[in-house]
């Protein structure tokens, strides 16, 4: 049974996929700092390709849907985001495994970027297509919402100071971002975080138990195998018509496999002879 106790301030183990995600963020953060110091013009040029800009996304810069969460967006925000990723990521990885943690993190990032970019075209609340979003908070909000959906009565520390139930903490974060979207400030960034929270909830509400990637691959191979079976049955029917014109009778099973005359009396449940 899952524990409903609070996530304490004791630092969890720094390992697995959680460590890799955090190290990627840190490498990106310090890499951009060094580049900004050593080659400011190149840093500004690269920034335009990495951050999330709706009009760029819909003009072919689709990689921004993923890269924008790895662009540093302020020291304090980065610290809190990575600490949240550390605490929540370790729990998620220990409960569901490394693959599903990474899948959830990237799914919420891409989903948040795509939804926020699409909504910006409605121009609601003063949103525009040339606004910019960057930083890991949309993906972290997805983790927080997923945790609250699964362990809503568990207690966590908001800003590592205030202790409250996860569902209330996430509700407060969502209301704060919603207020930012309505009242002003970093509207597009707040919208991306709201979309990240929505994607995190959708993932654990509707995603297959083994994850989206596994479910999609299973569905793909199921459709592919079904198509091959249909082609085999169609070829079998055509061959039967051809053989009848030659005054010969041939038989195929329901999957289009040839049945030799000596095998017709075999138990239909015996599939040892199938290729």
Automatic annotation (TrEMBL):
<keyword id="KW-0812">Transmembrane</keyword>
<feature type="transmembrane region" description="Helical">
    <location>
        <begin position="131"/>
        <end position="152"/>
    </location>
</feature>
<keyword id="KW-0645">Protease</keyword>
<keyword id="KW-0378">Hydrolase</keyword>
<dbReference type="GO" id="GO:0004252">
    <property type="term" value="F:serine-type endopeptidase activity"/>
</dbReference>
<comment type="similarity">
    <text>Belongs to the peptidase S54 family.</text>
</comment>
<protein>
    <submittedName>
        <fullName>Rhomboid family intramembrane serine protease</fullName>
    </submittedName>
</protein>
<dbReference type="Pfam" id="PF01694">
    <property type="entry name" value="Rhomboid"/>
</dbReference>
<dbReference type="GO" id="GO:0016020">
    <property type="term" value="C:membrane"/>
</dbReference>
<feature type="transmembrane region" description="Helical">
    <location>
        <begin position="104"/>
        <end position="125"/>
    </location>
</feature>
<feature type="transmembrane region" description="Helical">
    <location>
        <begin position="164"/>
        <end position="182"/>
    </location>
</feature>
<dbReference type="InterPro" id="IPR022764">
    <property type="entry name" value="Peptidase_S54_rhomboid_dom"/>
</dbReference>
<dbReference type="GO" id="GO:0006508">
    <property type="term" value="P:proteolysis"/>
</dbReference>
<feature type="transmembrane region" description="Helical">
    <location>
        <begin position="69"/>
        <end position="92"/>
    </location>
</feature>
<keyword id="KW-0472">Membrane</keyword>
<feature type="transmembrane region" description="Helical">
    <location>
        <begin position="20"/>
        <end position="39"/>
    </location>
</feature>
<feature type="domain" description="Peptidase S54 rhomboid">
    <location>
        <begin position="60"/>
        <end position="204"/>
    </location>
</feature>
<dbReference type="InterPro" id="IPR035952">
    <property type="entry name" value="Rhomboid-like_sf"/>
</dbReference>
<keyword id="KW-1133">Transmembrane helix</keyword>
């Amino acid at each position: 049974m899952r524990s409903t106790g609070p996530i304490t301030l004791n630092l969890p183990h720094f390992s697995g996929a959680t460590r890799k995600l955090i190290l990627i963020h840190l490498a990106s953060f310090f890499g951009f700092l060094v580049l900004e110091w050593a080659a400011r013009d190149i840093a500004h040029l690269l920034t335009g390709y990495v951050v999330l800009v709706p009009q760029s996304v819909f003009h072919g810069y689709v990689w921004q849907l993923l890269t924008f969460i790895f662009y540093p967006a302020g020291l304090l925000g980065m610290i809190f985001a990575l600490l949240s990723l550390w605490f929540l990521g370790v729990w998620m990885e220990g409960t569901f495994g490394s693959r599903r943690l990474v899948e959830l993190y990237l799914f919420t990032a891409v989903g948040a970027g795509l939804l926020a970019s699409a909504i910006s075209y409605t121009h609601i609340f003063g949103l525009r297509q040339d606004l910019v979003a960057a930083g890991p908070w949309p993906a972290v909000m997805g983790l927080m919402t997923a945790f609250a959906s699964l362990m809503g009565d568990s207690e966590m520390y908001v800003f590592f100071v205030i202790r409250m139930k996860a569902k209330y903490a996430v509700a407060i974060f969502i209301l704060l971002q919603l207020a930012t979207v309505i009242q002003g400030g970093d509207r597009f960034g707040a919208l991306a975080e709201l979309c990240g929270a929505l994607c995190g909830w959708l993932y654990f509400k509707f995603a297959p138990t083994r994850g989206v990637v596994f479910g999609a691959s299973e569905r793909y191979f199921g459709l592919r195998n079904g198509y091959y079976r249909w082609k085999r049955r169609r070829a079998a029917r055509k061959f039967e018509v051809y053989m009848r014109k030659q005054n010969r009778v041939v038989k195929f099973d329901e999957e289009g496999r040839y049945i030799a005359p000596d095998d017709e009396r075999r138990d239909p449940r015996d599939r040892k002879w199938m290729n």
